[in-house]
Every structure is written in C-alpha cells, then in structure tokens.
Amino acid sequence: MFAEKPVAIIDIGSNSVRLVVYSGAKRIPSVIFNEKVLAGLGREVGAIGEAAQERALAALDRFRLLVKQLGVVRTRVVATAAVREASNGAAFLARVRRLGFAPRTLSGEEEGQYAGEGVLSAIPDADGIVGDLGGGSLELVEVSGGRVGRSASLPLGVLRLDALAAKGEGSFAKKVARAVAGAGFAGAAAGRPFYMVGGSWRALARLEMALTDHPLPITHQHDMPIDRPADLKAALAKLDKGAIRDIQAISVSRFPTLPNANLLLEALVGALAPGALIVSSFGIREGLLYDELPPDQRALDPLIEAAREAGAGLGRFEQHGDMLDAWIAPAFDDGPKMARLRLAACLLSDIAWAAHPDFRAERGIDMALHGNWVAIDAPGRVMLAQALFCNFGGGRELPYPKIAALCSADKLKRAANWGFAMRLGQRLSGGVAECLRKSRLSRDGETLRLEIGKRDAALLGETVERRLKILAGELGLRPEMAAS
User: Fold this and answer.
1) Which residues contact 47 (CB under 8 A, 6 or more apart)?
2) Looking at 142-156, 227-241, 257-271, which range is the least confident one?
3) Which helix (H) or strand (E) holds 482?
C-alpha cells in the first residue's frame, strides 16, 4: 500500500535545511532518516547570501540522492520566512527547482496552521497557544477542541533577536509584548498551556532537564515550570561551549541561540500569561503529514496506534492486547483517561517475550519510558512502566525511585494492579485469545471472581490460582474461581 512506503519532507528554513523521511503516510509515522544542515539562509537582511545559497543547494543535492536511494514515493519541499521575505527568494527557489524539486513557499499563516496541526497530531487534546520559533519568525496559533484557530507570524525568529536584545531586557520585553498585542494575542494563553515548538526551545528544555537532573529526559510533552526561564537565564550566563559539550543532548551549534530564545520565552510568558509551558517535538513537518490524512485516520489515538503497532511487531500474538484489556477491564473502575493508558499497557503486554526471562521486567520498563510515544506525559509513561514491570514479574515496586516519584502513589498502585491482572490473564491463556473468550474476570461486591467453562476447568491450575490471589489481595478483595 502507498501508506506503507516512505514519504519525505524537506524544510528549507531560515537557519537550517532539513530532510526527514517517514515510514509512511499514516497516523504516527516513524522517522527512518533525519538530517539537517545549518545553511543560515536568513542570516543576512534583505537577501539570501550566495554562500548560504551554496550550502543549502549542496545539502539539497545530497537529499535528492538520498530520497531516491531510500525508496521515497513522495517528497514535499517547503520554504519558510527566509525565502518568503528575501528579495532574491524566487531566484533561489528557481535553483532548487533545477535540482528536480518542486518547492512551495509557505505564508506566515500557513506556517502557523501546520505548526498547530503538528501539535494536535501528537497532543490531540491540546488547548492553548502554540509558539513555533524558527530562525526568521515566530508563529503563534491557537489550538482547541482538536482544531487550529487563528494564527499570526511575528518577526521574532532567533536570527533576528540580537538587535532587540542589545537594547536591554526591559526594552526587549516591551517590544515582544507590543508585537504580541498587535497580533491580537495579548493574554491569549490565560491559564492555558503554551506549546513550545522549534529546535531552540527543545534545546532549552534539554538544558533545563540536565540542570535539574530530570530522571526522564524525554522532551516531548515535558512540562517546564512557568518560572524556569528566569533560572535558565542565570545558568546560561555561566555556561560556555565547553560546558554545553558535556550535555550530550544539546548541539553546540544550537548554543548561540539559547540565551535569546530563553529571553523570548520569558517575555512571552509575560505577554501571553500561560499556565504551563509544554514542549512539543512535533511541528510543521508533522503537521504537513497530518493535514493530508483522511478524517478517520486523524481521529485515531496516536498512543494507542503506536502501542498496537509495537505490540504486533514485537509480540507473539497479534491483537491479543485488545482482548486482554477487555478481559481485565471489569476488575477496575477506570475513567476514560485511565482506561486509555490501561489499553496501551495491554497492547504492550507481550513485547518482552524474546528477552531473557531475568530481564523481561527491565525490558518492559525501558520500552514504556523510552519508547517513541506521543500523546502521553511523563506520569503516563511511568504508569506504563509500572504496569509492564508487574506484568513481566518484576514485583510491586519500580526499581528507580526518582522515576517513580514523577507519578503519584495512587496512580502507581493502579498501574501495578493492571500489571497483576495482565499477568493473570497471560498465565491463564498462554497468550492466546481462545481461553480469554471462554473465561470471565469479574468483580462482585467484595469478591474477585474468575469463571471458566467446565470443559476447560483444568486451566484453573495452581499458578492461575496464585496469581488471582495476588491480584485480589492488591484490590482488597476475596478471590474466587469457578467452573460453570
């Protein structure tokens, strides 16, 4: 199918030219190749410099060969602020066309639209203001109810901030506030999240995580404290390139933009009045893919789809996770948000079967915490880890206290009980669907009851009974097995 073949996005930005090749045009495609070249098309005011053009064209010529060799079936090439605003932007794109590409220059409004779509593709319930910080511009766009609203493009890209910052922080903050107000976004976040999109802000998030010794350095959906920019400002004043090199997740080439990017973030907190700062690793490129999906695919839950795909690829029995979730569900009183995470855990319940038995629980933790998931925050990842740890026989307590501390005790207990229930279902059924269809787990008053048909009563062996007792004990219930 076409959707299973690689597609590519080439983003000709003000600071970098990037190629990303995705596994296909599906709900959450995997990245199979990602490369950027810092061409600096937007470094000179008015026109794109010849040296920058040559760097960009050399990178694009390489990308042309790569997409062919990778079997890419469709390549979209987009250009943003630097090309859009340069006097010789059209002439530069003519040179790009001679390489065989068909570039399209996005308007500022379109940049905001696609950035918003990208955030929604990875955080479907996003409700606030997206800020996409590039080299030449800052796009502000409202997202709510699964839709992108109004947007504005401001000339506040990281390559343009030096002149503003040179006049002092007070002047800088006032000019940012005026620009935001002029675009009609003053106070627009008002207690809602500000979603941070763009390489400079992702680098800031990595720096913040490194400085605070964050135990789970996953940038996507990282919740940065609202007052953190002030702390980062002091830290950045003391850092040099040598210190940045010690933080592996941050590129040295990104370091010069960080002080001004942080200064801008601090000013935007004052101008937009957000209630939270949430990092999004998804932006324009992912928005371009998401925008083309049919409505039924856009409506799919990206976490569940990714977990289902991983479970099918690494597990023994395809789609067993859906049935396992339906089987354990009656034992729990889970609302929609918790039931969603429970389903994700069940879909991943067989991913470690090929590992050595002594390391399956650790494999479950690693997959939950570090898997390429979206639409899940840090506490959600920890709940998945807890459930899979128990499912694979790791016991009641996660072996990493700092990781466990990212989640509340009651949620950890809930997730552990999912794991014990999954472990019971896996032992009873041997991982196949037939036994789950013929049996039933239910909760009746103070009793946790496991029923099966008389013909299959022999399946209720000692190990099954022991695991039922463990689960019932964790739930504060009396276990009961019956053949009827």
Assistant:
1) 86, 87, 88
2) 227-241
3) strand 478-483
